[in-house]
What we know:
The protein is an alpha/beta fold. It contains ten helices and 14 strands. Helix 4 (101-113) links the parallel strand 3 (93-98) and strand 4 (115-121). Residues 10, 75-77, 102, 148, 152, 172, 174-175, 193 line the site of pyridoxal-5'-phosphate (PLP).
Amino acid sequence: MARVFNFNPGPSTLPLDVLKIVQEELLDYRGTGMSIIESSHRAPEYDEINESAISLAREIFGLSDDYHVLFMTGGASTQFALIPLNFLSEGQAGAYVDTGSWSGKAIKEAEIIGKAYVAGSSKDGSYTFIPKQEQLQIPSDAAYLHITTNNTIKGTQWHYIPAAKGLPLIADMSSDIASRQLDYSKFDLIYAGAQKNLGPSGVTLVLIRDSLLKKAKSGLPTMFMYKTYADKKSLYNTPPSFSVYVLKLVLEWIKGQGGLAGVEKVNRAKQERIYQMMDLHPDYYKGTVQKDSRSWMNITLRLPTEDLEKQFIAEAKAAGFVGLKGHRSVGGVRVSLYNALPLEGAQKLAEFMDAFRKKNPA
Ligand SMILES: *Cc1c(COP(=O)(O)O)cnc(C)c1O
């Protein structure tokens, strides 16, 4: 078996230990004589998975029973619409900080349903930084403040939690959830498509504070209301059971790493390896974002020419480092260092970068 170092931006690498459990349990889930994929979501086996995933999420993120843990479908992109649908009342705006492509899509959906107010933006700087608190203008009559904690495509990340002026704080954490210690209880709603740091595609994790849930509109189609999922522990209809099962295994793996403190320690070391190499040779490996806004999860860089970038990506692939191509909208190279990418992968890639530069001077 030859496993590569998988730098895919999403869906992305999963812990090998988790994949092995999935493989082992696939044909006969714990003596049931069938796979969990073939099993009823009303069976006690699935109930146990659902309950454990909920309590593990609360434990890992340090959240009280005040938070509902929901397993939804439709990806983060569906949340872009569900949030304004549930929380904007007639004529009211949602406040958004625009830090790149994903925030832009969230704003677009809010504008379909109601109004969006841009409370801060790095658009004029080609999204190369995260606005500082004093640059935000948060209207006190907005329904909520929405941020995107990590900008997967642009390579920036929030390194502070903004004060929301008393508004509910909502975050799209799709690409950095569970990657670091953070006061998750500062947020009223957190959502993340699982396919970057939490598991396979197909399930979206939503953490919502009860006081915000109570403000949600009623009278929406059943499947569009957060309340439906909260009331039935995400079992109103058939959940994406396989994805929730793997997500539960990933949460157990995180716990086994020493929780978020343990995961953060490794993630810190990983991004240091790559940024250090870039900072040693800034004319060759050119970072595309401001240093104080650098993402630990997605490192974006350019090489001296597009030809060298193509060569870099191809030779890296041949050497066992896959998924390094920048997003089609920005080009260049993107190094995604999600939780399951081992430190060794970042270390070896940094060595590869050093050797590549020496062999191919600009
Ligand atoms: C990947 C990503 C999305 C899109 O998620 P889907 O699950 O594909 O809808 C949204 N926001 C961020 C920050 C992402 O990284």
